[in-house]
Design a protein that fits this description.
alpha/beta; homodimer; 27% helix; binds guanosine-5'-diphosphate; Spore Coat Polysaccharide Biosynthesis Protein SpsA, Chain A; binds manganese (II) ion
Amino acid sequence: STSGGKPKPPPVMRYNLNNVTITGNPVENNENILVLTPMARFYQGYWDNLLQLTYPHELITLGFIIPKNREGNAAYAELDKQITKTQKFAPEKDRFKSIIILRQDFEPPLSSQDEAERHKMQNQMPRRAAMAKARNSLLFTTLGPATSWVLWLDADIIETPPTLIQDLAHHDRPLIVPNCFQRYYNGEKKKMDERPYDFNNWQDSPTAQKMASEMGADDILLEGYRDMPTYRTLMAYMEENGGDVHQEVPLDGVGGTALLVKADVHRDGAMFPPFSFYHLIETEGFAKMAKRLGWQATGLPNYKVYHYNE
Amino acid sequence: STSGGKPKPPPVMRYNLNNVTITGNPVENNENILVLTPMARFYQGYWDNLLQLTYPHELITLGFIIPKNREGNAAYAELDKQITKTQKFAPEKDRFKSIIILRQDFEPPLSSQDEAERHKMQNQMPRRAAMAKARNSLLFTTLGPATSWVLWLDADIIETPPTLIQDLAHHDRPLIVPNCFQRYYNGEKKKMDERPYDFNNWQDSPTAQKMASEMGADDILLEGYRDMPTYRTLMAYMEENGGDVHQEVPLDGVGGTALLVKADVHRDGAMFPPFSFYHLIETEGFAKMAKRLGWQATGLPNYKVYHYNE
Ligand SMILES: Nc1nc2c(ncn2[C@@H]2O[C@H](COP(=O)(O)OP(=O)(O)O)[C@@H](O)[C@H]2O)c(=O)[nH]1
Ligand SMILES: Nc1nc2c(ncn2[C@@H]2O[C@H](COP(=O)(O)OP(=O)(O)O)[C@@H](O)[C@H]2O)c(=O)[nH]1
Ligand SMILES: [Mn+2]
Ligand SMILES: [Mn+2]
């Protein structure tokens, strides 16, 4: 390209990774955060919740990966409409720094995205391998030199405290997860109630270790299945009504519904294994890989976020 | 930011990863390539060789990661001088699409970068773990949605055919490595000669498999050490004078001196393990990880590139 006849020099970008701080006070330190969402379906509640996050939107980049199938096309259309509304017409303070949307070519390995179908045990290995690859594609393609934090946020997380990012970051941990619950109508009590949803946040058990040691090299342990009791300590059941929301517990496996990660953990190489890694896969394998790199996962049993209920 | 009083909408970028082709004819298909170089020292021969590559420079993005120590500062200063010369003053066709330079904070774990010191066996584990992290930081931070290929090229590779990228890509393999040699003065023959340099390109052996199976979980196999004979088949010794430069061999381990990778291999999650992965580390672990993801490494025994000789 030329300007005034003189060729314009192509861009040279210099970054000192040391100068990208990652601290417990990210707002004060102007730290950029990348919010990454694999999205098979669009939920209005997800978008509305995202909009009400009080972390300065000018420091937030959004990244999405959406399958290139019929359901994905519908999700993309809905998302695009909301993005235009926010980025073009909302007050400037509501607009995000930038938004990257990736479409992926591989079909999701399940024909149906329904909760019952998704959670069948024999469907877990291919489903979670595909999810891991989707997360990796999104991560490798969007993480930049100026990113301090990565917030993994599933498309069906429809309710979090508005201060989610600040609250989690304040703990200053390499990877940290809130407790993911689900609201439902309790027919017995005849009123709305809530129950644990994400069983991938756990502390390891001798039973699970033993099961792993007796498995084939490519087999994976799954959590939350009656046929395969692991006796791991699940964060889902550690919640205490009225308990300290800042209480921390160490974790060996994490879920990805909401998961805050220091960008340096990913930069060191921590990704979501789409294969058996110490008999773990995807987000649970990620926690293990982070640990191999020297980064310990932390959970907040009493800090809750909510998953959509179909 | 405002333009004419009306707030400018922040950028929204949409990418269809399917539309980013990765083919055996990358020039015809306008495929972007990212050339990634971890750089502890600057070699003029590296830069001169890079400049003479005939792959269209407007499709080449360069990425560097340079340690933030005294030697790294000197390398950075030299590199920066050459970059300015090329990007500002060279003919437009010589200029690269863009250049990203990262400085990294962690000290290289060795006090000296001399060849003898680098290659001592007890220095390999921490050195290669640090190298793996440097490669991962560079990769995770620079790979973009429009990248088709990644060429890993060490800073001390000072001679390659000008058509290196086209030649390697033409094989249309997920990961492919030329044979890395070194020129030296042969005192016996009293003339310049060449010898194999990179021993990380190999085919596995039953001996190495057996050694691995008897090792501690965190231990790694190393190649090219007399005290630890693996009897692997080394590509370094497969070269035949005058042999077909396009002859392919399958590989189980690869080196990173020059290594062309389809971007989708990395996007699936393949990185450089900074820990023992099947008793392999860094580039050798990368080949194994790619394999776990379904991508087979290929070597070209008769296609040569040359390493600097200190
Ligand atoms: N890109 C992509 N996203 C997916 C795919 N399958 C599910 N997702 C999204 O990934 C996240 C987790 O999947 P989900 O089915 O909700 O998992 P579950 O709640 O653990 O059953 C959600 O945000 C989904 O919308 C897929 O094949 N591709
Ligand atoms: N960023 C970074 N690059 C390094 C470091 N150590 C070596 N390098 C570079 O990484 C590449 C491989 O290292 P080198 O020492 O040449 O490995 P060898 O030829 O296998 O002994 C070269 O391009 C080096 O300049 C380091 O600590 N940090
Ligand atoms: Mn879900
Ligand atoms: Mn070298």
